[in-house]
Specification:
The protein is an alpha+beta fold. It is built from ten helices and ten strands. A hairpin with a 5-residue loop joins strand 1 (29-31) and strand 2 (37-41). The longest helix is centred in the last third of the chain and has 21 residues, at 272-292.
Length: 315
C-alpha cells in the first residue's frame, strides 16, 4: 500500500501526513476512481485530494456543502478542510468514511421492482436535504457551478422543445402544435417550486445501500448548489445501466418522486410533470444526437421511448 500512497505523496509528504493524522500505512487504501479527487481511505475516515489545481474549487464546494448538510443522515460528516503545504500544495478534505453496498456493484442484478424500491428510498433521502434552510448557505454553493445550466420551464422553452421535435420527427410522430398548451399546463406546478439545496450529481456510483436495500449514504457533494429541485431527478446523470430499463422510466420516476413527495413537508404534484420534463428534455437531446448520427439504432430506440413517456405523462 505504501507504493500506492507514493502516487499521491512524496516521501516527506507521506511521513508528515501519517504523523499529523496518526495513521498507519498498512491500514490505508487509495482510490483513483474520482473525476476530480484522489482518495486515501483510513478505517474511519477518507481524505480527498484535488487531482489538479483546477479541482481546488470542487473540493472547496464540497466542504461548504457537507458543512451545510451536517444534519442530513445520508451525507458523510465533514471532519475538516485542511491546508497544509507539507502534505499537499492544495487544500484537502477529511470526511467520515461510510460503508455499504455500492449501487453500481449490484445494478446488473437488480429487477425493476427492486430498482423501484431503492428509488423510493433515494427519493425520501433527497427530501432530507431539499428541506434545509438555504438562507445561510454561502459561496460557492449558493449558486450553480460554472459547468451547469439552470433548469427553465417557461413557455418559451417548451415552445422551443416542440419546434425542435416538430422539425426533426416524421409528420406521423410529431406532436401537434396544440400539445404545447398541454405541456405548459402539466409542467406549471414544477415551474412554481422554490429553489432548494441540490446534490446535483446523483447517480449509481454515489449511492450506498444498507443490508435491507435502502439508501444509507449519498457520496460526493462537490456539485452541490442551490437550484431547482428537478436537478436531483435526472437519469441522464447515470451510466448506461439504468437505460436498459428506459421503457420503464415512467414507473421508475414515479417511485423516485413518490418517495420524495411522501417525505417533503410541502404539497407537490404527482410524478407526471417530472416524467414529462425529463422525457421532453431527453427527446430534444436524442434528436441532436440523431442529427449527428442518423444511423444510430440506440438513439432511434431511445427516441421511441421518449415519445411513449411524453404521451403517458399527458394522458
Amino acid at each position: 500500500m505504501t507504493a500506492m500512497l507514493k502516487a499521491i505523496f512524496t516521501p516527506p509528504q507521506l511521513e508528515h501526513f501519517l504523523s499529523r493524522f496518526d495513521l498507519k500505512p498498512d491500514h490505508l487504501e487509495s482510490s483513483f476512481d474520482g473525476w476530480h479527487k484522489r482518495a486515501v481511505l483510513a478505517p474511519d475516515r477518507a481524505f480527498l485530494f484535488p487531482r489538479y489545481e483546477g479541482d481546488v474549487q470542487v473540493v472547496e464546494r464540497e466542504a461548504v456543502a457537507l458543512d451545510a448538510v451536517a444534519s442530513v443522515t445520508v451525507a458523510p460528516r465533514l471532519l475538516g478542510l485542511h491546508r497544509d503545504e507539507r502534505i499537499s500544495p492544495y487544500p484537502f478534505l477529511e470526511v467520515e468514511r461510510r460503508f455499504g453496498t455500492l449501487y453500481d456493484d449490484v445494478e446488473d442484478e437488480l429487477t425493476v421492482p427492486e430498482i423501484r424500491s431503492i428509488l423510493r428510498s433515494l427519493g425520501a433521502a433527497t427530501a432530507t436535504w431539499h428541506q434545509m434552510d438555504t438562507s445561510a448557505i454561502r459561496d460557492p454553493v449558493d449558486r450553480l457551478p460554472s459547468w451547469d445550466k439552470p433548469i427553465e420551464l417557461s413557455r418559451q422553452v417548451v415552445e422551443a422543445w416542440w419546434a425542435k421535435l416538430d422539425a426533426f420527427l416524421p409528420a406521423d410522430l410529431s406532436p401537434r402544435a396544440a400539445a404545447v398548451e398541454r405541456w405548459v399546463a402539466v409542467l406549471r406546478p414544477l415551474a412554481d417550486l422554490a429553489p432548494v439545496l441540490t446534490h446535483g450529481d446523483v447517480h449509481e456510483t454515489q449511492i450506498l445501500l444498507d443490508d435491507a436495500g435502502n439508501v444509507s449514504t449519498v457520496l460526493d457533494w462537490d456539485h452541490a448548489a442551490v437550484a431547482h429541485p428537478l436537478r436531483d431527478f435526472n437519469f441522464g446523470e447515470w451510466g448506461y445501466g439504468i437505460f436498459r430499463h428506459e421503457a420503464h422510466f415512467d414507473v421508475l420516476y414515479e417511485s423516485y418522486w413518490e418517495g420524495y413527495r411522501s417525505a417533503r413537508n410541502e404539497r407537490l404534484p404527482d410524478f407526471k410533470p417530472l416524467l414529462l420534463f425529463r422525457a421532453l428534455s431527453d427527446a430534444v437531446w436524442v434528436a441532436d444526437k440523431l442529427l449527428e448520427q442518423p444511423s444510430s439504432w440506440f438513439h432511434a430506440h431511445r427516441m421511441s421511448h421518449c415519445l411513449d413517456h411524453i404521451n403517458r405523462a399527458v394522458s
